[in-house]
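Q: Give me a protein?
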Amino acid sequence: MNDAATPDRPVSPPMQRPLRWLWLTLLVIVLDLGSKWFASTYLIYAQPVELLPVFNFTLLHNTGAAFSFLADHAGWQRWLFAAIALGVSIGLTIWLTRLKADERLSAAAIALVIGGALGNLYDRLVHGYVVDFLSFHWQGNYFPAFNLADTAITLGAIGLILASLRDGRRHTATSDKRDAP
């Protein structure tokens, strides 16, 4: 991102109190863990409860990562994924503290990813698996089950991509204006 001031876009100051966005992280964690508790308490393992013709609640335990990646291994992956979640959360928190005042989309996106990572980290450390229960299907084809933490991570990643694209367009537009005769 270009930090140089232009007549159209002055340099924005660092974000005041950037860690205030961690309220969103806390909200994601509370909603995620609450929904996982509800699913674990009221659903029977691997027995779908149809809510819509294409959507079920189905309690599943995932010892791997996305799409059950490495789920069939002996258990070492639990600690690998826990370390990754912790490292990503620390790195993203540092990034959050360095954002500028006008980077609200990036701040919200980072907070969502941190919340999702910590929600799934809790499951890995306490249970040894991640609780999944949201299950979409179409004509007998089932997509991998997921949870609210996974949803927050996905929405956060989309937000970071959109912020990056927007900032890239701003940079290009600013460069074009400077280069114009």
